[in-house]
Specification:
Largest sheet of chain B: 5 strands, parallel
Structural class of chain B: alpha/beta
Helix content of chain B: 25-40%
Number of strands of chain B: 19
Function (chain A): Catalyzes the isomerization between 2-isopropylmalate and 3-isopropylmalate, via the formation of 2-isopropylmaleate.
Subunit structure (chain A): Heterodimer of LeuC and LeuD.
Strand content of chain B: 15-25%
Distance between the termini of chain A: 39 Å
Pathway (chain A): Amino-acid biosynthesis; L-leucine biosynthesis; L-leucine from 3-methyl-2-oxobutanoate: step 2/4
Radius of gyration of chain A: 20 Å
CATH superfamily of the largest domain in chain B: Aconitase, domain 3
Oligomer: heterodimer
Strand content of chain A: 5-15%
Number of helices of chain A: 8
Organism (chain A): Marinomonas aquimarina
Shape of chain A: globular
Strand order of the largest sheet of chain B: 5-4-3-6-7
Strand order of the largest sheet of chain A: 4-3-2-1-5-6-7
Order of helices and strands of chain A: EHHEHEHEHEEEHHH
CATH topology of the largest domain in chain B: Aconitase, domain 3
EC number (chain A): 4.2.1.33
Number of domains of chain B: 3
Number of domains of chain A: 1
Chain lengths: 216, 475
């Protein structure tokens, strides 16, 4: 996994609550058996006028002019500013894959849906929870200032605005460690193989039916 | 010391390792796999030269992409017309063959929606931890199992290590007291709960559903309730084990037998929250107050009882809510409409992991029996949750009741719930759907979904618009 340490980039404001994973990446694109290539279909229905198809060339498709990522000033943005309950709905990891593939490195919102939040960390994408008031303030600043950039310092757990104002955020110690170092958590868990085997040996005594062969 | 909740007990019995930073390694007993969220996980195993930790803990079946017309299904995977869908189903078949994982393939009568198949086979058991790369894995919590959806990276993690790195959730109790009125079903209960606490109300919580109205539900009804816990933001929904649970599990193909059965039943009797257990939050609803529910907007929390007026954006005091409502009104084409009955329906879908079990089909069949689908409808389809549900329904003659009333009887799969196969809504079409999500575009580009119970969907199919099923059956 690509590490996340410190990042500075243009922030794009998506002013909509309860953005669900069907909005982030509609179902027709989930038919891919790869992890890459979803960026051109990120927010497909919000972004384009027509219905997108898998494997379709997207340059030349009619754009919805009012959608934030279609506006000139937000081109090249890598930090998404969002409203509450971002990423609600399905467990599709294609949602963080699409954000990542598009070039987003972080999403800042007052709250996230649990599964989406968790999936982000597996892909080097940092979801940041700030308070409603702080997010509101950032929305106002970004909309008033073209080229508005934020800096995110994961080690210090801070979002830094151009004015120098700092916003602290919480992040789980284990997730932070994995993200800072780009660690593969399967490899980490496999280091605990002995503990897993010891659990199984104990469990098979009290609940042997859980370990019966399932082939019928 | 306070007693333990059911969630606490399940957590404790699966704890492999507690770490200082608050995270923990949790053992997973059962992983269900389907074609959409597994290919990249198997690819990851191959890239790292890893093997599944314990083969007998996995069960796979294709469901999201499979066609549901008899014609397309005749020749199994080769009959899938959409080449991209076909590759995905073939990939699941190939991966299961390569790694030695049990799979119910498309032509197997046991194939169906993973969340219908697991319980039906007795693969889902009380006291287990169950995961699947699908958010509706919460369904299995109906058995007193700790079950939740995971992303593809975690699917790979469980395949490789049999564990997940987790942080403990908070405990919420949602208690529904008293008895439900006639034709008020599990679906209406869970929609009413979501209407009450909102789609983020359960975020960070494991929700245990309890109270007389929940205890009175069949296992099918309990699965419907837990299925939609995720629509209230909770990854985990739970219901305590009782005799109804045990009776359902007994003699299922994968359920324990003989001495192991007796041992299991004894262990399962402890799968209830202790009387003095502490919940971080408690929500109470009165079952008798719940009426048949219908969603009007583009989020499951945008839900009202059949006799209520559609709420207007301008009446909302909170700015973010007002904007969300205005957007939903526009998307759903509600201008000039006052009540749910003013909405003309185009299609009706009865199916999905929420409502495609035998009891759901019986409930819908009872309503349409001897009646005809409204001529104004373009289509009404019934999609059973598995090949075995389909067979049982046919044995009971339900298929005939549906087709005589003018509904189409299909082959099992996820179908129009998320429209990854050919079953979808056209732009601007309104659908009465027994599925779980009414998000923009969920059932097709520009499609407009209204979530309801099977009985309410059946009544809507007959009337051509929403109607209280209690009124319809009187005539």
């Amino acid at each position: 996994m690509r590490p996340f340490t410190k990042h500075t980039g243009i922030a794009a404001p998506l002013d909509l609550a309860n953005v669900d994973t069907d909005m982030i990446i509609p179902k027709q694109f989930l038919k891919s058996i790869k992890r890459t290539g979803f960026g051109k279909n990120l927010f497909d229905e919000l972004r384009y006028e027509d219905e997108g198809q898998p494997d379709q060339e997207c340059t030349g498709r009619p754009l919805r002019e009012d959608f934030v990522l279609n506006q000139e000033r937000y081109q090249g943005s890598s930090i998404l500013l969002a409203r509450k309950n971002f990423g609600c709905g399905s467990s599709r990891e294609h949602a963080p894959w699409a954000l990542d593939d598009y070039g987003m490195r972080s999403v800042i919102a007052p709250s996230f849906a649990d599964i989406f939040y968790n999936n982000c960390f597996k892909n080097g994408l940092l979801p940041i929870v700030l308070t409603e008031e702080e997010v509101d303030q950032l929305f106002k600043e970004v909309e008033a200032n073209p080229g508005y950039e934020l800096t995110i310092d994961l080690e210090a757990q801070k979002v830094i605005a151009p004015s120098g104002a700092e916003f602290s955020f919480e992040v789980d110690a284990f997730r932070k460690h994995c993200l800072l170092n780009g660690l593969d958590d399967i490899g980490l868990t496999l280091q605990e193989s002995d503990a897993i085997k010891a659990y199984e040996e104990k469990r098979i005594q009290t609940a042997p039916w859980l370990f019966e062969a399932r082939s019928l | 010391m306070a007693g333990k909740t059911l969630y606490d007990k399940l957590w404790d019995s699966h704890l492999v390792q507690q770490r200082d930073d608050g995270s923990a390694l949790i053992y997973i007993d059962l992983q269900l796999l389907h074609e959409v969220t597994s290919p990249q996980a198997f690819e990851g195993l191959r890239l790292h030269g890893r093997k599944p930790w314990r083969l007998t803990s996995s069960l796979a079946t294709p469901d999201h992409n499979v066609p549901t017309t008899v014609e397309e299904r005749k020749s199994g995977v080769n009959g899938i017309a959409d080449p991209v869908s076909k590759i995905q189903v073939t990939t699941l078949d190939d991966n299961c063959d390569e790694f030695g994982i049990t799979e119910f393939k498309m032509t197997d009568i046991r194939q169906g929606i993973v969340h219908v198949v697991g319980p039906e086979q007795g693969a889902t058991l009380p006291g287990m931890t169950v995961v699947c790369g699908d958010s509706h894995t919460s369904t299995h919590g109906a058995f007193g199992a700790l079950a939740h959806g995971i992303g593809t990276s975690e699917v790979e993690h469980v395949l490789a290590t049999q564990c997940l790195v987790q942080k403990k959730m908070k405990n919420m109790l949602v208690r529904v007291d008293g008895q439900l009125s006639p034709y008020v079903t599990a679906k209406d209960v869970v929609l009413a709960i979501i209407g009450e606490i909102g789609t983020a109300g359960g975020t960070g919580f494991a929700i245990e559903f309890g109270g007389e109205a929940i205890q009175s539900l069949s296992m099918e009804g309990r699965m419907t309730v837990c299925n939609m816990a995720i629509e209230a933001g909770a990854r985990v929904g739970l219901i305590a084990v009782d005799q109804t649970t045990i009776d359902y599990v007994a003699n299922r193909p994968y359920a324990p037998k003989g001495d192991h059965w007796d041992m299991a039943v004894e262990a399962w009797s402890d799968l209830v929250s202790d009387a003095d257990a502490q919940f971080d939050e408690v929500v109470v609803l009165n079952g008798a107050d719940i009426k048949p529910q219908v969603t009007w907007g583009t989020s499951p929390e945008m839900v009202i009882a059949i006799d209520q007026d559609i709420p207007r954006p301008e009446d909302q005091t909170d700015a973010v809510t007002r904007e969300g409502y205005a957007r939903a009104w526009k998307y759903m084409g509600l201008e000039g409409k006052k009540t749910l009955a003013d909405i003309t329906l185009d299609r009706v879908f009865i199916g999905s992991c929420t409502n495609s079990r035998i009891e759901d089909l019986r409930s819908a069949a009872e309503v349409v029996k001897g009646r005809k689908v409204a001529e104004s409808l373009k289509q009404a389809i019934v999609v059973p949750g598995s090949g075995l549900v389909k067979a049982q329904a046919e044995e009971e003659g339900l298929d005939k009741i549906f087709t005589e009333a003018g509904l189409e009887w299909r082959e099992p799969g996820c179908s129009m719930c998320l429209a990854m196969n050919a079953d979808k809504l056209g732009q601007g079409e309104h659908c009465a759907s027994t599925s779980n999500r009414n998000f923009e575009g969920r059932q097709g580009f520009g499609g407009r979904t209204h979530l309801v119970s099977p009985a309410m969907a059946a009544a809507a199919a007959i009337a051509g618009h929403f109607v209280d099923v209690n009124e319809l059956v009187k005539h």
